[in-house]
Amino acid sequence: MANDHYDVIVIGAGPAGYVAAIRCTQLGLKTACIDNWTDPEGNASPGGTCLNVGCIPSKALLESSALFAQAQNDLGQHGISVGSPKMSIKTMQARKDAVVGKLTSGIGQLFKANKITFFHGKGRVLPERQVAVMDLNSGKISDTLVGKNIIIATGSTPVELPGFKFDHKNILDSADTLALKSAPKHLLIVGAGVIGLELGSVWARLGAKVTILEAMDTLLPMVDGQVAREAARHFKKQGLEIILGAKVSAYKSNQSGLTVDYEFKGETRQIKADKLAVMVGRRANLDGVLAPDCVIETTPQGQIVVNEFCQTSTSGVWAIGDVVRGPMLAHKGSEEGVLVAESIAARKTYALDLQCIPSVIYTHPEIAWIGQTEAELKEANIEFAKGQFPFAASGRAQASGHTDGMIKVLSDKKTDRILGVHMIGEHTSELLAEAVFAMQYRGTAEDLGRTIHSHPSLSETLKEAALNVHKEAIHKMN
Ligand code: NAD
Question: In this predicted structure, what is the pLDDT of residue 3?
Answer without folding.
Answer: 55
